[in-house]
């Protein structure tokens, strides 16, 4: 029987569940930030789970600048960890080699080169022969080129985990092995106690670093964490005669394989199409330092590809084939941060490349706990990016299997996933599909990306060169329809909330930088900032009544934004938040003819004198009650029509019929993105982040310093007084480049910034990027270039919008 007597009740300030490399790294960094009362609770032994059988490759370059910086933090730690702790880590900073065997892969590598340059990571372009000098046992068959990152390498997973554990113990952390979590007691949004096979723990906060068990551990506290495991195999060859020493790791993505040097042998793994998710009905309680049965049939395609690239393996045997479950998440990226469901529950799991990430990830979580947020904005990894559907068995396992199989396959910017689609659908889904809507997915929602000119379904053909895609001209036609006539867009995926109660106005006044105390019917575009003045949320707020407000934010930001508001309320008993996303659809009606269309079916006046810009009204369209908001994201006269879901098709049909004489057409999100780039409408998480203030973003006009108190006010008031040193500018390219964001901005031969967004403006007929630039340089008339895929273009710098900078069309 479980012993729960008082002498078996223990307390710790920070209870970390999981003694793998992530949990040990978190404890290591917490103790170095002054936390002494830290306990790791491990159900088996340190390194057990996925850590001990990981391959151990350490690569740093990722698509996100801050994720790359986090992995660079890992390398910096591994460079000194053995000396600090006295524990051998077996760290080999021999570099990482990546081969190209196709023209498309060459372009991908050119983009990697520009991204690495913008992230401050050393990288070199190599000929096939130069690559072979680094990895002499490779065949040159089919190789066109290679890139080499000299600061990458490989490490022994068990050794580095033990070093982190020793470092944590040396600074006071406790590690309790052989004790499994059974349940958690939650009181008032906090874990009060954790019952284990060895008794009861009380704690101030919990960190779920349980790897493949993270999903199940979180469920004990009522938290949704889509982190689990899939099967992954790699083999280790027998001894290879005359094995070259000092070889780097190597990836051959066109053949789906990777290589890591062992002692006179090779570890060879890869990402096949038909892996399977592990233990979809729950991981056996006894599973610990174990492997799964080898599946040589499934590994055979990878083995054949490896034999082509390194023929020597045809002459030696296989020492072992390792099949182990590796952590994964519902979108293939990390799951990190503070849980939106509880106030003292943190998650750090879902690490496909956990050995590479562990050093930096542990540091980030420690900063989250001690400082309230990590030094780096890690939105791509933030647990609040997930919705309910991500954590379901129906979704997360099948999507993970698809992402796993695509790990090395060619993916172009904007490519969509294909499994588990149709989870969230607007009432207009089938109607628009029948009209040729080519759908993408965002936050589980099906959203039209663009419309086929033929009106029929067709396969989207991506490319690194956006001008060569099969949708480029179709998107241009949709763009011009908004600028010249009128268009409809299904924007039902917006996240929508009502904030209400007797304290609602007071709370919003304290959270928002703008003055929210406007008359009923006002719609306010505003930012919610942290105490550093950084933008946490970018939203519109409409005042529906004295103590009732309607907040709209991006499709993927609903959980994040509602959690930010909820956790920063001073008195949640007088203000509450209700999700309205599912109860209202949204149709965007935009373009210079939009008023003429609306007038034909609306019972109320929509003349400019009666319905001004930045206001909202309840109107009647046909037989439907509609909240019309005169605001938008494309920069033309128009309305967002927020419609009770059951009336959506009725309103759409009325608008389509009324707009027939004006040439009304449907548009998708690719056109919306092009339109917003021309108008300098910003996107939270790329253009603006918690590291960006409104003044740095050029949004100082939204800050109302006359208010006596709001979050971040002191910092913003100081910036208003002394000015900012960097600011977000619009860059128009002198020649067409395929921009997607993260391209280097170069001045005087040096990278000084990166683009936050990139695309093509069909009205201004130029490639457009946004970038934070030094104000002094811009004011001095400095010249800048953008580099994309190895090509450079000069730029025109604009402090504002490239199209209709005075908003004359918007307010017509």
3D architecture notes:
The mean pLDDT is 96. The N and C termini lie far apart (76 Å). Helix 1 (21-32) runs parallel beside helix 5 (157-170), helix 1 (21-32) runs parallel beside helix 8 and helix 2 packs across helix 5 (157-170). This protein has 812 residues and is α+β, with helices and mostly antiparallel strands. Strands 1, 2, 8, 9, 10, 11, 17 and 18 form an eight-stranded mixed β-sheet that branches. It has 18 helices and 37 strands.
Defining traits:
eight-stranded mixed beta sheet; alpha+beta; 37 strands; 812 residues
Topology diagram in text:
Elements: E1 9-17, H1 21-32, E2 38-42, E3 57-58, H2 65-85, E4 96-100, H3 103-119, E5 124-126, H4 128-134, E6 145-149, E7 153-154, H5 157-170, E8 174-177, E9 181-187, E10 190-196, E11 199-208, H6 214-219, E12 227-237, E13 249-252, E14 257-261, E15 266-270, H7 296-309, E16 318-329, E17 335-338, E18 345-349, H8 354-371, H9 393-405, H10 429-434, E19 437-442, E20 445-451, H11 472-484, E21 487-490, E22 495-500, H12 504-511, E23 523-529, E24 535-545, E25 548-553, H13 558-567, E26 576-579, E27 584-590, H14 594-601, E28 616-621, E29 624-629, E30 638-644, H15 648-658, E31 665-666, H16 669-678, H17 713-722, E32 726-733, E33 744-747, E34 750-761, E35 766-774, H18 775-779, E36 785-788, E37 791-798
Parallel strand pairs: 1-2, 1-11, 2-8, 4-13, 11-18, 21-31
Antiparallel strand pairs: 3-7, 4-6, 5-6, 9-10, 10-11, 12-15, 12-16, 13-14, 14-15, 17-18, 19-20, 21-27, 22-25, 22-26, 23-24, 24-25, 27-30, 28-29, 29-30, 32-35, 32-37, 33-34, 33-36, 34-35, 36-37
